[in-house]
Specification:
Layout: H1 2-24, E1 34-41, E2 51-58, E3 72-74, H2 83-92, E4 98-100, E5 120-122, H3 133-136, E6 144-146, E7 168-170, E8 193-195, E9 205-206, E10 219-221, E11 229-230, E12 243-245, H4 256-259, E13 267-269, E14 277-278, E15 291-293, E16 302-303, E17 316-318, E18 327-328, E19 341-343, E20 365-367, E21 373-374, H5 389-394, E22 397-399, E23 421-422, E24 429-433, E25 438-441, E26 444-445, E27 451-456, E28 461-462, H6 465-470, E29 473-475, E30 480-483, E31 489-497, E32 500-511, E33 519-521
Parallel strand pairs: 2-3, 3-4, 4-5, 5-6, 6-7, 7-8, 8-10, 9-11, 10-12, 12-13, 13-15, 14-16, 15-17, 16-18, 17-19, 19-20, 21-22, 24-32
Antiparallel strand pairs: 1-2, 23-26, 24-33, 25-30, 27-28, 27-31, 29-30, 31-32
Bound molecules: 2-acetamido-2-deoxy-beta-D-glucopyranose (NAG) (6 copies).
GO molecular function: signaling receptor activity
Protein name: Ig-like domain-containing protein
Pfam families: I-set (PF07679), LRR_5 (PF13306), LRR_8 (PF13855)
């Protein structure tokens, strides 16, 4: 308690001295529309000291007389401010470290700007169309440049060739449609933070070497850029990257190969994409990965065995809000010794194998509320995990019918079935071109483990790989049937054990066209494939977009 008293005394003293510091400087000539006082200034980088600085905050000003010792200047919202006068005055001031001109109706950065003391420049919400080398040349010590929500269309790689002090570059929500400029210069090799979210790329693929000159980068934000694919070498050179944000793009699979080039990555955000499935080593055994966010994938049905294999630092996985997700492989999280949270709420998951959580020594929480739980014998183990009252109340059975809306904790272990269920891990209807192989993932639950057999509408039965090969198909141990030369018809997966059987059928329609758009659906009503299917669809045949073919 003595220590506590002592430390609170220290806190009191330091708070008191800050108050003094604030009072200490009040600019005597502070214009009425301004607020001039000491404020806490957070340095752009750890190398610069965070401190209390003389700050002039003047909103909606036209003219302003800036005192000689000004340090932080904020003219946000001053759309009529006289820029030529400001440029002239800035050149005379030696102490300004921070200048903010948000919403000042700037349409260009005159080349006359000059300040050797400036560390941070904020130009958000203006009408800038370009940023050139000459426009930033006057700020040789600049560490943080923020130009969000402008209308920047293009950046030359020469722009940043002398910007070797730049640590943070935030260009979110502009009209930049290419990233060519990033690797055309060595000038950005000190950059630690790059924000490019909301710029829609014209060629929506990240190609090899895009970030190859950004060796110091730690945070990379690429959300909402329309990215459809990431090539294997796209992240080459990002040896120090810790945070990668790919939220809100159009990725259909995890860029496993590209992730291999990010040895230090800790936080990966891939929420709001179009990922269809996770499989063996999707995250490439990344040693430092702590958190993976994969929520809101409208097409994600399946998280297969070893998807999160051997991720030694992984602590949390967010998979909630995936409306089609119905299966997590029992070995999905093998060798993840630090994993403490798996969030699976609001998905289609009705069963989860006990093995998913066994072998996870650090697991503290597995979120299951909002799921259509099938209260059968596979799920009885989960009762032991529902410890707090909210969890006990929220995990409710959707089936079998007699337990509908009962809480899982109220279901009697001796009164449940162990018969198989077949999960909706493949759609009920598919329309595909004859050039493409069809992959049907059948996944089941049941105790003992059900045996999977595929029945075809031709009358053929596929029980094992030998039989599959005879029909130019392959069948693996997990129940996936790959049809190399698809034929129209029904394909039914049947799961059977000594307690019963279950099945699920997909109707496959094969069209003889290379331009057909693939359709996967669970709707049973007829699909109108004409006219929408006969369109040239780059979404399907992404190779049509390859640079060597049609781009440029
Ligand atoms: C913004 O600048 C443009 C010219 O660049 C001018 O026409 C417009 O009136 C200005 N808007 C305001 C609110 O001052
Ligand atoms: C910019 O860099 C080039 C070489 O990259 C150099 O020749 C030039 O002097 C530099 N300009 C300034 C203003 O530092
Ligand atoms: C630089 O990036 C472009 C695409 O933006 C790529 O084509 C090129 O190969 C990259 N260059 C290097 C040296 O990585
Ligand atoms: C891109 O990089 C990957 C990984 O290094 C490599 O396998 C691939 O061949 C490269 N592709 C091109 C077009 O250079
Ligand atoms: C495949 O199944 C058929 C029919 O049950 C059986 O005759 C055959 O021996 C099996 N082949 C293998 C390799 O298991
Ligand atoms: C995609 O288009 C290219 C070029 O037209 C063609 O060569 C390729 O076979 C197509 N791929 C598929 C899977 O249809």
């Amino acid at each position: 308690t003595l220590d506590m008293k002592f430390s609170s005394l220290v806190t009191l003293i330091s708070v008191f001295s800050f108050v003094l510091a604030q009072e200490e400087w009040l600019n005597p000539s502070c214009p009425q529309i301004c607020d001039c006082r000491m404020t806490e200034w957070v340095a752009p980088t750890p190398e610069v000291v965070t401190s209390w600085r003389k700050t002039e905050q003047c909103r909606n000003v036209k003219d302003v007389s800036i005192p000689d010792d000004a340090e932080v200047l904020n003219f946000d919202g001053s759309s009529r401010i006289k820029i030529p006068q400001l440029v002239q005055r800035m050149a005379e001031l030696n102490n300004v470290v921070d200048l903010s001109l948000t919403s000042c109706n700037l349409s260009s950065l005159d080349s006359g700007w000059k300040s050797t003391s400036l560390l941070r420049l904020n130009l958000n919400e203006n009408a800038l169309t370009e940023v050139s080398e000459s426009s930033i040349r006057g700020f040789p010590n600049l560490e943080e440049l923020t130009i969000e929500r402008n209308i920047l269309k293009h950046i030359e790689s020469s722009t940043f060739r002398n910007a070797s002090n730049l640590k943070s570059l935030q260009l979110d929500s502009n009209l930049l449609d290419s990233l060519d400029w990033l690797n055309g210069t060595d000038g950005l090799n000190g950059l630690t933070k790059l924000f490019l979210g909301g710029n829609r790329l014209k060629y929506p693929i990240l190609v090899n070497g895009t970030f190859s000159k950004l060796a110091s980068l730690r945070d990379l934000v690429l959300d909402g850029m329309g990215i459809r694919r990431i090539k294997g070498g796209a992240f080459k050179g990002l040896e120090l990257l810790e945070t990668l944000d790919l939220d809100g793009n159009a990725l259909q699979s995890i860029p496993s190969e590209a992730l291999r080039f990010l040895p230090k990555l800790k936080f990966l955000n891939m929420n709001d994409n179009l990922i269809k499935q996770l499989g063996d080593k999707s995250f490439s055994e990344m040693r430092n990965l702590v958190s993976i966010e994969l929520t809101n994938q409208p097409e994600l049905r399946l998280v297969d065995d070893r998807s999160f294999f051997n991720l030694k630092s992984l602590e949390r996985v967010l998979l909630f809000g995936n409306p089609m997700l119905s299966y997590i492989g029992k070995n999905a999280f093998v060798s993840c010794p630090e994993l403490s949270l798996i969030d699976l709420h609001d998905t289609m998951i009705e069963s989860l194998d006990k093995d998913v959580v066994d072998g996870l020594p650090s697991l503290v929480s597995i979120e299951m509320k909002g799921n259509p739980i099938n209260c059968n014998c596979v799920m009885m183990w989960l009762k032991d995990w529902l410890v707090d009252q909210t969890a006990r109340d929220k995990v409710v059975c959707a089936s079998p019918p007699r337990y509908r809306l009962s809480r899982l904790v109220d279901v009697n272990d001796n009164d449940v079935t162990c018969a198989p269920t077949v999960q909706p891990t493949f759609p009920l209807r598919m329309v595909v071109p004859d050039t493409q192989q069809v992959v049907l993932n059948c996944r089941t639950f049941g105790i003992p483990q059900p045996k999977i057999v595929w029945f075809l509408s031709s009358g053929d039965i596929i029980r094992n790989q030998t039989e599959a090969q005879r029909h130019q198909m392959s069948l693996d141990g997990s129940g996936t049937l790959t049809i190399l030369k698809p034929k129209s018809g029904d394909y039914a997966c049947t799961a059977e054990n000594n307690r019963g059987m279950a099945s699920r059928k997909v109707s496959v329609q094969v069209l003889h066209s290379t331009t057909v758009k693939v359709i996967y659906t669970d709707k049973v009503e007829p699909i109108s494939v004409f006219p929408s299917w006969e369109v040239e669809s780059p979404e399907y045949n992404i190779s049509l977009l390859e640079p060597q073919q049609t781009y440029k």
